[in-house]
Structure formats: structure tokens, C-alpha cells
From TrEMBL, chain A:
Membrane topology: Multi-pass membrane protein
Protein name as annotated: Carbohydrate ABC transporter permease
Domain of life: Bacteria
PROSITE patterns: ABC_TM1 (PS50928)
A Pfam family this chain is assigned to: BPD_transp_1
Transmembrane spans: 38-59, 112-132, 141-162, 168-193, 214-237, 279-297
Localization per record: Cell membrane
Organism of this sequence: Allomesorhizobium camelthorni
Entry-linked Gene3D superfamilies: MetI-like
UniProt record, GO biological process: transmembrane transport
One of the record's GO cellular component terms: plasma membrane
From TrEMBL, chain B:
Record-given protein name: Sugar ABC transporter permease
Subcellular location field: Cell membrane
Keywords assigned by UniProt, alphabetized: Cell membrane, Membrane, Transmembrane, Transmembrane helix, Transport
TM annotation in the entry: 21-45, 78-100, 112-132, 161-186, 207-232, 271-291
Domain of life from the UniProt record: Bacteria
Length: 313, 299
């Protein structure tokens, strides 16, 4: 039971970050161009440039033609902007014998991510609700195993899952992978929902019980509408996590249904043919685009999500 | 559906709906996490090749494992990578958090920039840095183009330093997260402590080192566990950046396990290697859990 508590510390700290500091503080206002400020902002801007540079390089490389890449400098902006690498990466880049580009991987990833997100969140939210409000004997033991299990390296559990999926006939199919994502998303999501539902005032729950509402009625009519923010956090966490997954995709699916990350790696690291760096970079950006959009659109909710999801590693 | 309240419900049927709803959790905990782990450890004592077989050979797989040069390279890489990424993540993460905690303007913008690589997958990260570290066109090529002809910076093609090339990419991707955890810790510290230190005329760096950091002990421990459990799992990044090369110079244990299970068709060896990974996690987690438990019990 120690793990969830420690994570709570981290999670509650994040709330503190998110809150704006509004009380007046400090001595008299400092001059804008003090030496301290120049040093402080100078350092921050330098570091920011370091963090942004790879994204910039990737972007300009993807807009150059191959001759320009061979002659020029990776940091220089493109002289002649071309969108051909993007088109090629999306529609005609080859992996093995297939030459239909990353679009296939993209749609595979969509087909994997949507059911995985829905299933894992549905299961985990009900689990968390049961753990918070309908405690039964032994529930805490299973929950502790679940949380400790989040630290077990995946490699230890990969093969037994292969056998189980093979037995039920789902090995190599999209649904097999969906189940795997739901299993490995369960510890962190259950923790997230359990903590949230525990913080809901108990009187509300009791009042509903007095009115004769049962397990599912309370879940759907009271808990679900109240927990919408935490559902959003869970969705952000799962969409980025599942989209970025590589290991499970490569193990539990067949080449036709490889997710985008696996296909991207196969395109870029294929040994055959001339390396087309601009196409590779366009493909890399395309793969990173979905989590980046989620990240920039979600802002602070993403921070809350990773505070909870950090253990997922 | 309503809960059963007619008559006197037996123990098993109390909270029946909650129990039914928890079946996925119970199955995951028992079958996958407990059962799967036990199964793998159990079969690591067999000589399973293409298919799991119950033909026990004692500790042979482990002897073979520790005699394999590839495994030794993987362990050495993991040790270098682990120690350095632990130190650098903590130091850089804390420094970034301390910088952001100076009541600066545009704090949100800077935080967004430092954290965005964390949203990218290891595959994407690895491929970006593979391109930046390309000896002909990347950083080395650019510096040489500026006139410094003898400049050398090609970690991904030099077996001696390839693991540092992977470390650079990993730090770029992961320090934002550590910064966020540290910033949360810094924000959790009472403002009065800063005021008291300022009144006493203690320099800022001393306040950090002797007062703030010791107060942030729980945050540091949580962060440490998070970093450590991530280190053992490092896999995608290596696959994307070097595929374990040049030669076997950048192999890591997770890749060893995968290759032996799914390519070399030597399951027993894969099971033994993954059991060693489990062991290394236990070594990190158990003392931490013990400390947490012990402290809570006293309070």
C-alpha cells in the first residue's frame, strides 16, 4: 500500500504547480534588466533552444530535397521547400514488400488505440469505483498486487501472455493487443480512479444507497458524471502511452497490422536502398504528431496525467 | 440492477456486483502479474528452446547467461547508462526546476518546452537523435564544415562510447518529467522557510543544499524509484537508435530477452535473462517499499 501513497504525494504536488501564485510576496519590485534576470532568462532560453533544436532540425530536414541535405547543413533552413518527402512518407515509403507508406501504420494505430483506450478506461474506472466505494474482503490484496505488478519488467510477463492469447485464439490479432494494453494500463488507471472516487464525499454515496440505487446505478448516474475531469486525464495518459508503444506492438501483432511506431522503425532502419533522410524525418514527425497534438492541446492535464503515469515508465 | 437485499445474503454474494466488476482486476493480478511472473521464473530452469518444455536443467541457463559476452556487454551498458542517467536526470531535473521556481515570467512556456519531448515515443526520440548524431550530416559534419576538420563526435558509430549517445537522447526525452516532479516538490515547501532563510542572510545555494533538498527527501525517493524502474526497461530507444550496434556494443538486457525469445528461439535463455531483470528491480523496489512501510508504521 506504500506505492499509491507515494504517488499521491507526487500527484498532489502537481496540483500545487498548477495553482497560480497570487499572494503578494518579495521585497520591492526588481528592475527588469538586473544581472540576475539576464543570467536567469539567458540560461532558460539557452536550455529551451537545446530542447527545441531537435524538433526544428527534424522539421527543416523533412522539407529539403536530398541534394540539399547532402551539401548543406542540418541546421540551415531549406532553400527550396518541398513537400514531396511528406507525401512519400505517408503514401509510398516501403517496409519490406509493402509500399503503401506510413498511412497503413497510422490507421493500424488508430484501430489499436481507440478500443484499447475505451476498454482499459472502462475496466479501470469500474475497478477503481468498486475499490473506493464497495470494498469487499480481499480487494486490497488484489490491488496491492496490481500496483506492485506495475514495477515488474514487462519482459517477465511477455511470454506467458503469448501462450494465453494463443490458447484463446487472439495471438497476432488487434484484439489481442487491445487486451494487452488494457492489462498493462490497469495498475495506473485503477490507482487514478480509486484515488478520485475515494475523495468523493461519502454522504453522496450513502444518500444514493438510501434511495435504493445499486452498484451500477450509482456508477452511471452519480460517479461517472462527476469524474469527467479524471476521465480526460486517463484518456490523455492512455492515448499517448498506447500510441507510443513499440514493444507490445512488435510482439503481439502481425506485420500487416503493425502500429505506426513499429512501421516507422522498419522504414527508417531498413538496410535496403538509399537512405532518404528527408523522408525518414517526415515519417518521424508524422508518428510523433498525435502525441504532440495531445500534449499541446491538453496543457496542464497532461502534467497531471504523467504525474500518475510516471510509474508506467 | 440492485444489490441483493432479500433474505440473508451469504458471504459470497455480499457486494456481488462489485466482485463481478473486479474480475478483470483479480484476473490481471493473479493470472498475469503473479502467475505470469512465477511461470517465467519456473521455466527459466528448463532447457526450453522453440517451445516451453518441462525438462529441468537446474541453473544451467544462468551459467550460460553469465558466460555470454553479449549479456556481459548488456549488463555493463545498463550499469553505465543507469548510473549516469540517474545522476544526470536528478541533477538536471532539479536545476531546471530550481530555475523555473524563481518566480519567473513565461514559466508555463518554458515548462511546456522542457516537457514536450516526454510526449514523444522512444522510437521517435531515437530516430531524431540518430539523425542529429549522423557523422556525415549531423553535428559532427556541421562543426567540420565550419573549419574544425579534426572534430570528432560520432557516438553511434563508435563502440566505445555508443552508450553515451543513447544516454544523450534518453536525457533529452526524460529530464522534463523529472523537472516536473521536482518542481512539484519545490512548490510543496512552505514559503516561510524561504523567508526565514532570507532573514538570516543565508545564501540561496546554501538554503537549497542544506534546507530545501533534505526537506524534499520523499520527492527524491519517489523520483529515484521512477527513474530506476524506467532504466531497467530501456529497449525501444536502443532499437531505434542503433539496433544494438555497432556489433553488440549497445546491447541492453531487455533487448537480449526479446531477441532470445522471439528470434534465437532459445526460450530458456530468454526466461533466465528476464528473471535477472526482475531480480534487479526487486533489489531497487524492496528497500524502498520497506522504508516507506517502516516510516508509515512509526507515524
Amino acid at each position: 500500500m506504500s506505492d499509491p501513497a507515494a504517488l499521491n504525494v507526487a500527484a498532489s504536488g502537481f496540483e500545487a504547480v498548477a495553482k497560480d501564485v497570487s499572494d503578494p510576496r518579495g521585497a520591492k519590485p526588481r528592475r527588469v534588466l538586473s544581472r540576475r534576470n539576464i543570467f536567469l532568462y539567458g540560461t532558460l532560453i539557452l536550455i529551451a533552444v537545446y530542447y527545441l533544436l531537435p524538433l526544428y532540425v527534424m522539421f527543416v530536414t523533412s522539407l529539403k530535397g536530398m541534394p540539399e541535405i547532402r551539401l548543406g547543413n542540418i541546421f540551415s533552413p531549406p532553400v527550396e521547400i518541398t513537400f514531396e518527402p511528406w507525401v512519400k512518407a505517408w503514401a509510398t515509403a516501403c517496409t519490406g514488400l509493402n509500399c503503401d507508406g506510413l498511412s497503413r501504420g497510422f490507421w493500424n494505430s488508430v484501430r489499436i488505440t481507440i478500443p484499447s483506450v475505451v476498454l482499459s478506461i472502462a475496466v479501470a474506472s469500474v475497478n477503481g469505483y468498486a475499490l473506493a466505494n464497495w470494498r469487499f474482503k480481499g480487494a486490497d490484496i488484489f490491488f496491492t498486487i496490481l500496483i506492485v505488478g506495475a514495477f515488474i519488467p514487462y519482459q517477465v510477463m511477455i511470454y506467458p501472455i503469448v501462450i494465453i492469447l494463443r490458447e484463446i485464439g487472439l495471438y497476432g490479432s488487434l484484439w489481442g493487443l487491445v487486451i494487452v494494453h488494457s492489462i498493462f494500463g490497469m495498475p495506473i488507471l485503477t490507482l487514478l480512479f480509486r484515488n478520485y472516487f475515494t475523495s468523493v464525499p461519502e454522504e453522496l454515496f450513502k444518500a444514493a444507497r438510501v434511495d435504493g440505487a445499486g452498484f451500477w446505478a450509482i456508477y452511471f448516474k452519480i460517479m461517472l458524471p462527476m469524474a469527467l475531469p479524471i476521465f480526460v486525464v486517463a484518456i490523455i495518459l492512455q492515448v499517448t502511452g498506447i500510441w507510443n508503444d513499440f514493444l507490445f506492438g512488435v510482439i503481439y501483432t502481425k506485420p500487416e497490422s503493425y502500429p505506426m511506431t513499429v512501421q516507422l522503425n522498419n522504414i527508417v532502419n531498413s538496410v535496403q536502398g538509399v537512405k532518404e533522410y528527408n523522408v525518414n524525418m517526415a515519417a518521424t514527425i508524422l508518428t510523433g504528431l498525435v502525441p504532440l497534438i495531445v500534449y499541446f492541446a491538453s496543457g496542464r492535464l497532461f502534467v497531471r496525467g504523467i504525474a500518475a503515469g510516471a510509474v508506467k515508465g | 440492477m440492485t444489490t441483493r437485499q432479500n433474505g440473508r445474503p451469504s458471504q459470497l454474494f455480499r457486494n456481488l456486483n462489485a466482485k463481478i466488476a473486479s474480475i478483470p482486476m483479480i484476473l490481471t493480478a493473479l493470472v498475469i502479474f503473479l502467475g505470469g511472473t512465477a511461470w517465467t521464473v519456473f521455466y527459466s530452469f528448463t532447457n526450453s528452446k522453440l517451445l516451453p518444455r518441462l525438462n529441468f536443467i537446474g541453473l544451467d541457463q544462468y551459467e550460460r547467461l553469465w558466460a555470454a559476452p553479449r549479456w556481459m556487454v548488456a549488463i555493463e551498458n545498463l550499469a553505465i547508462y543507469g548510473v549516469l542517467s540517474l545522476i544526470f536526470s536528478l541533477v538536471v531535473g532539479f536545476l531546471l526546476a530550481a530555475l523555473l521556481d524563481q518566480k519567473i515570467r513565461f514559466e508555463d512556456t518554458f515548462r511546456t518546452i522542457f516537457l514536450y519531448p516526454f510526449a514523444l515515443s522512444f522510437i521517435v526520440t531515437g530516430l531524431i537523435w540518430q539523425w542529429l548524431l549522423n557523422p556525415d550530416f549531423g553535428i559532427q559534419g556541421v562543426v567540420r564544415g565550419l573549419g574544425w576538420e579534426s572534430f570528432e563526435f560520432d557516438p553511434l558509430y563508435n563502440a566505445e562510447i555508443v552508450i553515451y549517445g543513447i544516454l544523450i537522447a534518453a536525457l533529452w526525452q526524460g529530464t522534463g518529467l523529472i523537472m516536473c516532479l521536482m518542481l512539484a516538490g519545490l512548490r510543496g515547501i512552505d514559503e516561510d522557510i524561504w523567508k526565514a532563510a532570507r532573514v538570516d542572510g543565508i545564501p540561496m545555494w546554501k538554503t537549497y543544499v542544506f534546507i530545501i533538498i533534505p526537506m524534499m527527501r520523499p520527492v527524491f525517493i519517489t523520483t529515484l524509484v521512477i527513474i530506476a524502474s524506467g532504466i531497467v526497461r530501456v529497449y525501444d530507444l536502443v532499437v531505434a537508435q542503433t539496433s544494438g550496434g555497432p556489433g553488440i556494443a549497445s546491447e541492453v538486457p531487455a533487448k537480449y530477452v526479446y531477441d532470445y525469445m522471439f528470434h534465437a528461439q532459445n526460450l530458456g535463455q530468454g526466461f533466465a535473462a528476464s528473471t535477472m531483470m526482475l531480480l534487479s528491480v526487486i533489489i531497487v523496489i524492496v528497500p524502498w517499499a520497506y522504508l516507506e512501510f517502516g516510516r508509515r508504521r512509526h507515524v
